[in-house]
Amino acid sequence: MDVMARFRTVAAAGLALSAVLAPATLAQGSLFKAIPVDQSKFILVSAPIGSGERSQLNIYEQRSSKRPCFATSGSAPAVVDPLLSKFDFTGICNRYIDGNGYSLRIGGDDLGTRYRLSVVNTGSDIELLATPTRDSSRPTFVVARAGGSASGFIQLTFEPGWTLKRRAYGKKSLGHLYVFRDSAPGQ
């Protein structure tokens, strides 16, 4: 077989392979969907870590009306009493406390490996930031705020355009939440 015939055979095989892989590649982008949730059943919380000098994002979900999972008092900032820490909340509440339970999604793009959600106390407010993990030239987004500074468990309120959605695979709802926005701020 001459060189040109071999090239045509290899090129044809490459095209055939790309045609076979193309649907899988397209499916990869839509592997998970974001489906709406009842926002009234959820609360975003700045939860202290250790001695309380740093905080992390917790998201609590009220799954049944058997007993309350959390209570809030005050405003700007509102203090949260995580009642679910005082009883066996199985089947009553869900608690999402790290990247295994939630991630950032903008439109159809799951950014869980490219952005980290961090709680930052600015001194005058507590902010939930979406910070790039790999490419520092990417923008940081303010996702939620407390409306003032305080210590302890503090409620965070989404900035306009942000919401929660649930991850789904096909028609099956999964136990992972998206901190979601249709498009990046400023677009």
Task: Describe this entry's structure for a reader.
- The chain has 187 residues and is mainly beta.
- The termini are far apart.
- It has one domain (33-181).
- It has one helix spanning 3-29; strands spanning 33-36, 42-49, 54-62, 71-73, 79-81, 93-96, 102-106, 109-110, 115-121, 126-132, 141-145, 154-158, 163-169, 172-181.
- Strand 7 and strand 8 form a beta hairpin.
- It contains 1 helix and 14 strands.
- The protein has a 7-stranded antiparallel β-sheet, with no helix packed on it.
- Mean pLDDT is 87; it is low at 3-29.
Q: Would you summarize the structure shown here?
A:
By secondary structure, the protein is mainly beta. The protein has one helix and 14 strands.
Spatial arrangement of strands, main beta sheet: 6-3-2-12-11-10-9
Number of helices: 1
Oligomeric state of the chains in view: single chain
Largest beta-sheet characterization: 7 strands, antiparallel
Shape: globular
Fraction of residues in helix: 10-25%
Please describe the topology of this protein.
Layout: H1 3-29, E1 33-36, E2 42-49, E3 54-62, E4 71-73, E5 79-81, E6 93-96, E7 102-106, E8 109-110, E9 115-121, E10 126-132, E11 141-145, E12 154-158, E13 163-169, E14 172-181
Parallel strand pairs: 7-14
Antiparallel strand pairs: 1-13, 2-3, 2-12, 3-6, 4-5, 7-8, 9-10, 10-11, 11-12, 13-14
Keywords:
7-stranded antiparallel β-sheet, mainly beta, 5-stranded mixed β-sheet, globular, 187 residues
